[in-house]
Amino acid sequence: MRHARPLSNACHGDDPRGVSAASRRAAAAGAFAVWVGALFPSIAIAQSPSQTTRAVAVHGDVQTVGQTNAPTRAGDLLEPGTRWVTRAGATLTAVSSDGTRVQLGPETELSRAPRTDAQRHGPPTPAWTLVRGSLIMSRELNTRVRRSLQIAAPSAILLFSHGEAIVHVHPREGLGLTVLRGLAWLRVGGHDAIIPSRRVVLMEVGSRQTRIAAMPSPPQWLREPPGGVVWTPERSSATADLRPPEPATPAPRLRVQLARDAAFQDVSDDRTVPSAEHVSWSLPQAGEYFVRAAWIHRGVVSSSWTVPVRVLAVGPTIVPAASGQVARLRVPAGLYCSLDRAALQTDRTLNLLPGYRHVARCSTDASGAGAVDFPIGAEVSGPIVATVVVQSALRSNAAAPRMVTIRLHDGGGRPMQLANVRLLTPPTVGVSAVQEADLPGLYTTSIIVRGVDGPFSVRLVVNDIVVQDVRVDAAPPR
Prior knowledge:
The protein is 4% helix and 46% strand. The chain is built from 3 helices and 40 strands. It has a 17-stranded mixed beta sheet that branches. The longest helix has 8 residues, at 21-28. It is elongated and about 115 Å long. The N and C termini lie far apart (107 Å).
């Protein structure tokens, strides 16, 4: 490696000469290589044949494309002659055997060329290509590891042994690289330059010049995302407001990431949106999340990330009824809930009435600010325990009305009152309206059997839930 010197006609921006020789040696050991293409900006990543890269987290529609196409799963390797393709809204995180972590953003294509004998026995050659999209690379400093991924295209080389960098390839805008941390070594033609952290490199389509400049400032939270949100299967979202960029023109786009960990190694949502002040996202399940954002200038140059903000999605759970125990709504700490428009409570459990529809209201604030309502179906509130007794037919008059008594109670043995009870019968069997008796949990009705010779069934429906079918003998007992 030749000594570094500032780029002359090829690059404009900060003078990187004030970097120590020790830093240069650290940058050269086990390095990345990037050739930046101006007219057709694609990036090829080369690695030693002994290196492997395995997917560790997959979210959304990600395909492994080769001789056959198949969904990419966690644990899959990127084999020679295949490529990973992420669709809109999808992300993939992979880890190389040398410790390099690679994160593919949405609508990104990363391919690996078939392995040749020269690659199998010779030195590493460029064999992977980032055709389009975005890639985040990170690798911690490890002096025992002497090799790393390379990124290649025709006109520049970037080397670094550790740190974090974001690469964007856009077919109309060009190629941009942001060094968030660590140290990079850039070679354009015969000129070398050291690129310290917090610098960006831009090569636009159709231009022969490479620009190096200070990394743009990150967005500023005008209002941070809420620290806690109510999560339910029916509705789960959070919103945030971002301060507009400076300068306001040309307005950059905003990249927002949602992850399950503060290091953003498992990104479940990654999107680029117009630079509106209002950003919203959905939370796929209850739990702890972290949110960060960055500006995307000219479609390819990224700013640094905002400080991650923690969002806790908390939601109640329904504990099914068991022997001697009714179904309950369990409320986690940090959440306030009530049933059927009652005042919010601090109780950790709320009993559900079996067979009844409920509306639960929950908020992360005791005052009820931002409360979320969600229904609880009658089928969830059960079970209903029923005992149905049908009076036998009279020998003297088989067509006389026959009394039906229905006893209802919940899983805890408590009588069910004020229930909507119906008895469904065959067309030739008449039934009167069900009446609630004075004794709690007791309901009565009567049926008249005509034109039925053999046994038949009546169906008990409580609060629009089918509870059970009851077999009835049409003929009087012998």
